[in-house]
Design brief:
Blueprint: H1 17-27, E1 34-38, E2 51-52, E3 62-63, E4 67-70, H2 74-77, E5 80-87, E6 101-105, E7 117-120, E8 124-127, E9 130-133, E10 143-144, E11 155-157, H3 165-173, E12 178-182, E13 186-192, E14 196-197, E15 208-209, H4 212-222, E16 226-233, H5 237-250, E17 253-257, H6 265-275, E18 277-282, E19 285-286, E20 290-295, E21 300-304, H7 308-326, E22 337-341, E23 352-361, E24 367-371, H8 381-384, E25 388-392, E26 404-409
Parallel strand pairs: 5-6, 13-16, 13-17, 14-15, 17-21, 19-23, 22-24
Antiparallel strand pairs: 1-12, 2-11, 3-10, 4-6, 4-7, 5-9, 8-9, 18-20, 20-21, 22-26, 23-24, 23-25, 25-26
Helix pairs in contact: 1-7, 5-6
Bound molecules: adenosine monophosphate and magnesium ion.
């Protein structure tokens, strides 16, 4: 079999994507600043310490039904019991149940001492103070036990966990109104390029609209990051240098797009070498070969490629997990699933491809996936029409229809 043509952009010194992610993650430290936050404002924040419960939930044994609380063994002697009181949610029966007695109980009502079961009201008939039971319950029937949801002392949230709406409910259920979270991450952002114009203005020949910055800004917003957006900075040494210095004073990290490919990289490289410590990496990744990472005096630097697809893919695959770590979050593993290519996918060996795909579940239950048209690094619509990435291994060549591939469905960040 002839060897497939190798990717023209591949070279032996390209860094594999996995190695780039590992290097990034081991190069950054989580923020140390912690603040107390009301649980009502805490959605999306990162928990800074293990949170344990100081109570049992529920606090006491209680009823799962509207009915009568009794001691199950009593109904072995007789099918009727004497009604001596009631226990409603929030208004318990104060007293001890004696042999031959029962009380009226509502859902959530505390089970009195001496009772061990609840019979639902549909299985009883009341005759004044005498309650007739149609069935004998088992001990424990329709009882919700103290601590069966959360035990006293149990850890409910781990350090590094991002708080969801349900987590807020859990915190409230154990009586917590304030939670210690990491300070919100501050990220500065700008686009570089003389050709970039804001949408809403007319383009002259050679100009394009700046689409990277709005997308990145929205993604950072969604991640719960505080964004400092400097707009577009021209390909001008002094202006770029001023922008880098300003951002380094204001933010924990700086993200730029454009100006990292050969030729244009020189300004950025030169400035960054003066100001900090920078590595320009060539990644064995398609799209997204050029990528820069480094340290400014007070902040981390991420230089994304200018091509919109490359910018987005490198941001999503490399920068998101790294920012999560800096923000104190335990980076979440993304879901990867096996799928069948429904059509041929073009691929040259040499780099790991993150092709944009659309997947669906076929009638036989198998996941199928197709590409979303042209895969060039400038084709933003290929990402917009996709619902997943198709991950094609570095050394793989063309994929034929029917072959197995791995997909990564978009997580909530891209949806
Ligand atoms: P560069 O990395 O600066 O050489 O840019 C590579 C390609 O991406 C060029 O075609 C740029 O015009 C384009 N590009 C750079 N920045 C942006 C941006 N913010 N929005 C859209 N396209 C961009
Ligand atoms: Mg440029």
């Amino acid at each position: 079999m002839p060897t497939p043509p190798v990717d023209q952009c591949s070279a032996p010194d390209l860094m594999p994507v996995e190695q780039a992610i590992d290097t990034l993650l081991s190069s950054v430290e989580p923020l140390s600043a912690i603040e107390s936050c009301s649980v009502f404002q805490a959605q999306g924040r990162i928990v800074a310490e293990t949170v344990s419960s100081a109570i049992n939930v529920p606090l006491a044994n209680n009823s799962a039904m509207d009915g009568y609380a009794l001691k199950a063994a009593d109904l072995k002697q007789s099918s009727s019991l004497l009604l001596v009181g009631s226990s409603f949610a929030g208004r318990p029966f104060d007293g001890q149940l004696q042999a031959g007695q029962c009380i009226r109980i509502m859902t959530g009502g505390v089970l009195p001492a001496g009772a061990d079961a609840v019979v639902m009201q549909e299985n009883c008939t009341a005759n004044g103070d005498t309650i007739e039971f149609l069935q004998a319950p088992r001990s424990g029937e329709n009882v919700r036990y103290a601590g069966e949801d959360i035990r006293l002392g149990q850890a409910v949230l781990a350090q590094g966990h991002k708080l969801s709406a349900v987590d807020i409910g859990m915190l409230c259920s154990i009586g917590i109104s304030q939670v210690n979270v990491y300070r919100r991450l501050k990220v500065a952002l700008f686009s570089t390029g003389d050709e970039l114009k804001p949408p809403g203005t007319a383009l002259r020949p050679g100009e394009i609209y700046d689409s990277n910055r709005p997308t990145l800004h929205c993604l950072l917003d969604k991640m719960g990051v505080e964004v400092i957006d400097l707009g577009v900075i021209a390909d001008h040494k002094d202006q770029l240098r001023d922008a880098f210095l300003h951002c380094d004073q204001q933010a924990d990290a700086l993200i730029t797009s454009g100006g990292v490919s050969v030729g244009e990289a020189d300004y950025t490289k030169e400035i960054l070498q003066q100001l900090g410590k920078i590595g320009f990496w060539k990644l064995a990744m398609k799209p997204g070969k050029p990528f820069a990472f480094g340290y400014l005096p007070n902040s981390y630097f991420f230089g994304l490629p200018g091509n919109p697809v490359s910018a987005l893919v490198t941001f999503y695959q490399l920068v998101v997990p790294t920012l999560q770590k800096i923000a104190g979050m335990t980076p979440l593993a993304r879901t990867r699933l096996p799928a069948i290519a429904s059509e041929e996918l073009r691929k040259r060996p040499g780099r790991s491809d993150f092709q944009r795909g659309h997947y669906w579940v076929a009638a036989n239950g198998q996941i199928q996936v197709r590409g979303t048209g042209k895969q060039g690094s400038g084709i933003l619509s290929s990402i917009a029409q996709a619902n997943c990435f198709i991950l094609l291994e570095q050394q793989r060549g063309d994929v034929l229809a029917g072959e197995n591939v791995v997909i990564e469905p978009y997580d909530e960040l891209l949806r």
